[in-house]
Design a protein that fits this description.
Layout (H helix, E strand, L loop, with lengths): L24 E3 L8 E3 L6 H6 L1 H15 L14 E13 L3 E12 L5 E2 L2 E4 L3 E10 L11 E9 L4 E6 L2 E3 L6 H13 L9 E2 H5 L28 E8 L1 H5 L5 E2 L8 E7 L3 H4 L4 H15 L4
Parallel strand pairs: 2-3, 7-12
Antiparallel strand pairs: 1-2, 3-4, 4-5, 4-6, 7-8, 7-10, 8-9, 8-14, 11-12, 13-14
């Protein structure tokens, strides 16, 4: 007997068919050539265009593409263009505020050569290097300086106890320094005026000097091959009584209602590169501190 053949029929329904949600497309404003943006069913054009991370990313990318007009640019003979954006998925915080977004940008030149365009959009964060020194140590020395690290679960890294500099996402308003001061209070309990913070990345990274320069953030990009995240790094130094210094070790902090379970760790400054070595912003902060110190900038 011949074996039976089973046929499986899959029904593909057009947009508007009962029980389906249609995806929508709009044209990106001020784009040349015109760039279609394909949205997911749970995202509107207004929501996307109002998302701070998308606004920063698209304006930065468009300016960088425009620099190819300079005859000295390596891509000038065959400049790349943004052709299309496909929004692939979105995450909302609290069910309302757009938090994370995954997209695919189609970027190619007229020769058919493409650039990788998979992007995880999450926007800017801030990180803080908080250095404490006992007030019984001679001033103007590096002796016995301690850096506050946070130890907390980081599920994307598969860790329940990752040591890193205190850090957090920027909200939709305010300054970098203000955001840093807010995160310091939440993660360490320290109330520090924003005016007391030193922006190390701003001191180390010069701003764009002309329209022919790319206008990236004066910040560290920890994963530029896949994410737009940028992190300004701030410094705060304080001399405190030795007993108070000891009180920070092992202190529990964080916003419990947001699921934050943070333990503070005091790390000798000269050991930060080892104990915080898995965290890119910790290594960046350590390098910036020593580089700026060597150059007499801090």
């Amino acid at each position: 007997m011949l074996p039976r053949l089973r046929l499986t029929v899959r029904h593909f329904h057009p947009p508007g068919y009962p029980g389906t949600t249609a995806m929508s497309t709009f044209t990106l404003p001020n784009s040349e050539p015109k760039v279609p943006v394909n949205l997911t069913p749970d995202l509107s054009a207004d929501q996307l265009l109002a998302f701070p991370a998308f606004k920063t990313w698209i304006s930065t990318l468009q300016h960088s593409l425009s620099t190819q007009q300079d005859p000295s640019h390596a891509f000038n003979p065959a400049p790349y263009k943004l052709r299309k954006i496909d929004i692939q998925s979105v995450d909302f915080f609290g069910g309302k505020r757009l938090g994370f977004l995954k997209l695919k940008a189609d970027i190619s030149n007229d020769n058919g050569e493409k650039l990788p365009g998979s992007v995880f959009l999450r926007g800017g964060s801030v990180a803080m290097m908080l250095i404490l020194q006992s007030d019984d140590v001679p001033e103007n020395t590096e002796d016995e300086k301690q850096v506050i690290l946070t130890v907390q679960p980081r599920i994307p890294a598969g860790s329940l106890a990752l040591a890193e500099l205190p850090a957090g996402m920027l909200d939709d308003s305010g300054t970098f320094a203000g955001g840093a001061a807010k995160e310091i209070a939440q993660e360490t309990g320290l109330e520090i005026p924003a005016s007391d913070l030193i922006n190390m990345t701003e001191l180390a990274i010069p701003p764009a000097s002309s329209d022919n320069d790319e206008q990236l953030q004066q910040a560290v990009y920890p994963s530029p091959g896949g994410s737009d995240e940028f992190i300004p790094l701030f410094l705060w130094q304080k001399r405190v009584p030795r007993d108070q210094l000891k009180g920070w070790q092992g202190k529990l902090t964080g916003l419990r209602e947001h699921g934050e379970k943070i333990t503070l760790m005091l790390c000798p400054l000269d050991q930060v590169w080892k104990l915080g070595g898995r965290d890119a912003k910790t290594l960046a902060g350590w390098a910036l501190y020593h580089g700026l110190k060597r150059d007499g900038r801090i």
